[in-house]
Design brief:
The chain has 10 helices and 13 strands. The protein has 2 domains: about 10-150, 60s Ribosomal Protein L30, Chain: A (2-Layer Sandwich), CATH 3.30.1330.10; about 165-320, Alpha-Beta Complex (Phosphoribosyl-aminoimidazole Synthetase, Chain A, domain 2), CATH 3.90.650.10. It is of the alpha+beta class and about 325 residues long. The radius of gyration is 21 Å and the shape is globular. The strands form 3 sheets. It has a 7-stranded mixed beta sheet with strand order 8-10-7-11-9-12-13, sandwiched between helices. A 4-stranded mixed beta sheet has the order 3-6-4-5.
Length: about 325
């Protein structure tokens, strides 16, 4: 397929994203091919802004092979929305960067349509983006830069005595796929494109459920790249303990990966292992948070320590420090 540098699908993309150019948070002035955004003063207070950029990386290879673009869009949105939770940020606009190995107009339109639908559901203005064609490698990507308002700034912290509440993942989410491709490089079924549906299952979006109760939460951690090691920079004279008896159990795909010889420690440093989001909650707020989040479970606590993360492995009887 020949790459047409004039990008004839640009008009279709612009028509789609313009349908998101209404917002309860912004006045949107249409300048033809881009909007100019003005913060509405009806908030009655000064707001901060936080920006976040993330993509789905190696997982996009499997979405491209399966043409599962709606799931790919959900992955990209989740990677940004879930991280904005840590800032208690209300998303209001985004831009996309779509990388494909071949110039396929319908693939691009399907991705944009999926993003537009999700933006409309959340009053997010889609202001534009970029498409790039890179046929020198086989790995596409869908990435997003998302901006959010921070109306009440809160330090993300994991305080001594807090309970840890976990929300279940939908499986692999969008991290660890580089390791997966290395593990599975000799698997003849995967080589022929016959992989489990888990490989294209979209990442759970937690923002919608958790944001309304963010004021009852001290710390929020989205378990993505780096998995459970991501807690370490936030631990001040404290340690994290994640138990086995109350732990959300890993889905079968994680047990299959572990069975290929990946050590327990590497599992918890790379994969979410069934826990997609962790909340650090003052004990008095635990009942209200659990009532609001019916799938959430108590998984551990925050104790005095030296910035370490302890996990009782769900794959063996080992106690790990990750």
């Amino acid at each position: 397929m020949t790459y047409n540098t004039s990008k004839p699908y640009t008009g279709r993309v612009l028509e789609l994203i313009k349908t998101t150019w209404t917002s309860p948070y912004l006045e949107v002035a249409d300048y033809g091919d881009h909007p100019v955004l003005f913060l509405k003063t009806a908030f009655g207070q000064t707001s901060g802004q936080v920006d976040h950029t993330d993509g789905i990386g190696t997982k996009a290879y499997y979405h491209y092979e399966a043409r599962s673009w709606e799931a790919a869009a959900l992955d990209a949105l989740a990677m940004n929305l879930n991280d904005l939770l840590a800032y208690r940020a209300q998303p209001f606009k985004l831009q996309s960067h779509i990388t494909l190995p071949w110039d396929d107009e319908e693939d691009i339109i399907q991705i944009v349509e999926a993003l537009v639908k999700q933006c409309k559901d959340r009053s997010i203005v889609f202001t534009g983006g970029e498409t790039s064609i890179n046929n020198m490698n086989d790995c596409p990507d869908v990435s997003i830069t998302m901006s959010g308002f921070v109306m009440v700034y809160a330090v993300n912290q994991f305080l001594e005595g807090d309970a840890l509440i976990g929300l279940p993942s939908t499986g692999l989410h969008a991290n660890g796929f580089t390791l997966l491709r290395q593990i599975n490089s000799l698997d003849p079924f995967l080589a022929k494109g016959e992989w489990p549906d888990d490989f294209i299952m979209p990442t759970a979006i937690y923002w919608d459920a958790v944001f309304p109760i963010a004021g009852k939460v001290n710390g929020i951690m989205h378990i993505t790249g780096g998995a459970f090691t991501k807690f370490k920079p936030f631990l001040k004279n404290t340690d994290i303990y994640i138990g086995r008896q109350h732990q959300l159990q890993p889905q079968q795909i994680f047990r299959d990966i572990h069975a290929k010889g990946i050590p327990d420690e590497e599992m918890y440093r790379t994969f979410n292992c069934g826990i997609g989001l962790v909340l650090s909650v003052n004990q008095e707020n635990v009942p209200a948070v659990l009532e609001h989040l019916p799938t959430a479970r108590l998984i551990g606590g925050v104790h005095p320590g030296q910035g370490r993360v302890h996990v009782l492995s769900a794959f063996s009887d080992k106690e790990l420090e990750v």
